Amino acid sequence: MTLPRFDEIRPKIEAHIREVKDFPKKGINFRDIMPLFTNPQLVNELCVVIADHVRHTVGQIDSVAGLEARGFLFGPQVAIQLGVPFVPIRKKGKLPGATIEASYVKEYGEDRVEIQEGAIKKGERVFLIDDLLATGGTLRVSGFFLFNVKN
Ligand SMILES: O=P(O)(O)OC[C@H]1O[C@H](OP(=O)(O)OP(=O)(O)O)[C@H](O)[C@@H]1O
Ligand SMILES: Nc1ncnc2[nH]cnc12
Predict the structure, then answer these.
(1) pLDDT at 137
(2) Of the four, 39, 59, 123, 135, which is 20 to 30 A from 28 by CA?
(3) All domains of the chain, ordered by start, with CATH?
(4) Is residue 30 in contact with ligand 2, taking CB distance under 6 Å?
(5) What are the angstrom distances between the C-alpha of 48 and each of 2, 11, 93?
(6) Does residue 8 have an active-site annotation?
(7) SS3 3
(8) Residue range 47-74: mean pLDDT, rounded
(9) Of 5, 31, 45, 70, which is the active-site residue?
């Protein structure tokens, strides 16, 4: 899929991403996105472009979900642009109350994550935001559903 407005800012985004070899373990080429946040205007532009993409290409959604921690840097900003709730997906043990849990394998390890029960209802359309895909882990982003939401 081409995203002309993203392509316009892509060089600026890429210029703010730092590569760190062998972090957090040997053999991993870590992409550090934090330098982006030295440029708040660019982060804002990026979130506006993502929100416009959702509006024009994805259509009506019920919520934006973001994966702790780096998904929290972008997800709430996009949700605010779209006027929909933000649903946090957190590492295990951080969310109070009843939760639904899933595990997945990522490039440099394995994680267990949770959402609060009832945060997403069956049949809702949720736009998932994270900072980057490395291996894609055990998630399949196209048509994948991380959690088995029964209610
Ligand atoms: O494509 P994958 O191989 O699955 O890797 C990508 C995932 O790994 C990172 O999260 P991580 O939990 O390491 O870090 P964070 O807590 O700093 O967001 C990144 O933010 C993605 O969620
Ligand atoms: N290569 C990588 N750079 C930054 N974050 C990551 N998460 C998983 N793999 C990563």
Answers:
(1) 64
(2) 39
(3) 4-129 (3.40.50.2020)
(4) yes
(5) 16, 17, 32
(6) no
(7) coil
(8) 93
(9) 70
